[in-house]
Design the sequence.
């Protein structure tokens, strides 16, 4: 398969490298920042461009790995791809962002948090696919299977809910970790002490439903400990607010 | 070392087994529920009792692995241990709960979430120790080192903060996982899709400070996506409330 990559950020970077490793032919790498395009193109042995008008029209698939806000704007500047197969990698944007610009479009959404420096475990990664027509869905499913084990067909509505759920379990969870670190730092306690607990919490729910794994003073209705904790958080109204809201909701389970 | 275990719940169960495996002599297992005491005693080849007055007074260490609320009450019923070394395993209760009952006391707090069915990785587990006198601290540190790699000296104030922080990173995080599962269940989306993300979120901060790992619409100031998410949560005021509070706090970082 000949694949063009539009965007050389975290997602574009990891996807292009993985596709290349698995034997796909990366046609072009576009980035508005030519340095990023060159760095990625060198890895996947292809040409780097920073002008949309230089994109070739004979790729089998165009993957838009750019920010949600830029999707419509970039699509508008590529009328020559009207009849090509085009997908984006966003969890938050419906496939219909492409409706007025392309006839064959879909979504190629790897549900994972990407960091450029850290290797992505594609084998464990869930790839959420959607296409506006069956024939092309088979194509992107075929490409998806060549780089990932876990393929899911997910429509726009489902993907938007997955994205919200991901914000809870990833972004908000990371913020709770930040609070944990901050509480300890103020007393010069080593954050490393909490790391095994953080890992075990995530590992437990790989095999058990989280609702059954709930522990702590709230689910035990241990009002004495809750009261002590609220007193300890007295000087930090933000954390106290989260503590109270979470505790109330767990008490109501 | 001869060690008596008071309490055969999750913590008592795992601690007794680990101490026994590492060659310690478990003197007695007490539980007010004799069945629990017998089950654990059989594993660690000792006697099970359910009457406090049957506890022998010649153990080198007594580990109280019972609920926070029961600590003072049980201590009061054991005047014969006045001059023995006694520790509890609680994160929430200060060591001073023993002050009026024993002359040599401390804390032996394994900072981990325990489930009876799941094997505990003692090698990775942080053990937080405290003692009201130096000689006995050396003893419990010696015992701690025989079962764990990561030993920390943590006083009552520090341990209370560790316990609050653990509630954020463990109990509240697990509740966020529950929310994620619930959001998906309503649309019949497989919760398995989120599991690799949950694991990666916890793994990332093993090597990087969580404050530097924050991603998502709030930290990107992506108000369009935040707005979409709030609309998706319209029918669930509880989750919406958490979304708004977390988002506001991340926006203020």
Sequence:
């Amino acid at each position: 398969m000949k694949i063009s990559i539009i965007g050389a950020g975290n997602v574009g970077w990891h996807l292009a490298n993985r596709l290349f490793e698995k034997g796909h032919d990366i046609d072009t790498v576009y980035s508005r920042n030519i340095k990023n395009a060159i760095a990625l193109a060198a890895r996947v042995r292809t040409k780097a461009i920073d002008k949309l008008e230089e994109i070739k029209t004979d790729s089998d698939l165009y993957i838009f790995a750019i920010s949600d806000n830029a999707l419509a704007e970039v699509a508008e500047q590529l009328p020559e791809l009207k009849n090509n197969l085009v997908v984006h990698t966003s969890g938050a944007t419906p496939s219909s962002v492409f409706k007025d610009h392309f006839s064959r479009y879909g979504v190629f959404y790897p549900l994972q948090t990407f960091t450029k420096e850290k290797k992505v475990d594609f084998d464990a990664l869930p790839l959420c696919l959607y296409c506006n027509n069956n024939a092309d869905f088979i194509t992107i499913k075929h490409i998806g299977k060549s780089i990932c084990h876990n393929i899911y067909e997910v429509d726009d509505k489902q993907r938007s809910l997955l994205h919200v759920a991901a914000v809870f379990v990833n972004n908000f969870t990371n913020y709770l970790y930040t609070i944990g670190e901050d509480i300890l730092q103020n007393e010069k306690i080593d954050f490393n002490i909490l790391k095994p607990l953080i890992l075990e919490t995530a590992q437990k729910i790989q095999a058990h439903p989280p609702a059954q794994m709930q522990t702590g003073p709230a689910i035990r209705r241990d009002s004495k400990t809750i009261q002590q904790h609220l007193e300890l958080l007295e000087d930090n109204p933000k954390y106290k607010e989260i503590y109270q809201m979470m505790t109330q909701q767990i008490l109501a389970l």
Q: What stands out?
A: The longest strand of chain A covers residues 104-110. Chain A has a mean pLDDT of 96. The radius of gyration of chain A is 22 Å. Residues 156-185 of chain A form the longest helix (30 residues).
